[in-house]
Design goal:
D-tyrosyl-trna(Tyr) Deacylase, Chain: A; two-stranded antiparallel sheet; 2 helices; 19% helix; 37% strand
């Protein structure tokens, strides 16, 4: 499982020209799921993200977590995070999980990350063509891969 975590001052997702979800200060999480991912990956990643100290304290030091600032979270499915570009110029997505595997894991991830914060987690729609808008605050962008635990 791969996640791109972006600290945002605001983000929204639209589908077919209609805004589906919107958050203010918090985290936009782009989530890529591969076939081998499981509940253990979800639990580890949710805990890691919820405890990341990437928000500024009163002294301007990144010392606070999403929980500390009572921020919001938006999760967007993104199979392209598993793109392989070793051969040729057309990315291969062979490692990305098929919908029958990915959808339940995506939904479980949203439920579990929601247990760490108070505001309800916002999300896109799995498999939809989405337009994501964000204001990356900092900018702060962190990439986490559960297979490498980094």
């Amino acid at each position: 499982m791969r996640a791109v975590i972006q600290r945002v001052s605001g983000a929204s997702v639209s589908i077919d020209g209609r805004e589906k979800a919107k958050i203010k200060q918090g985290l936009l999480i782009l989530l890529g799921i591969e076939e081998q991912d499981n509940q253990e990956d979800i639990s580890w990643l949710c805990r890691k993200i919820s405890l990341l100290r990437i928000f500024d304290d009163p002294e301007g030091v990144m010392n606070l977590s999403i929980q500390d600032v009572k921020g919001e979270i938006m999760v967007i499915s993104q199979f392209t995070l598993h793109a392989k570009v070793k051969k040729g110029n057309r990315p291969s997505y062979i490692k990305a999980a098929r919908p029958e595997t990915a959808i339940p894991l995506y939904e479980n991830f949203i439920r579990e990350i929601g247990t760490f914060i108070e505001p309800p987690v916002q999300s896109g729609e799995f498999g939809a063509l989405m337009q994501v808008s964000l204001v990356n605050d900092g900018p702060v962008t962190i990439i986490i891969d559960t297979k490498n635990k980094e």
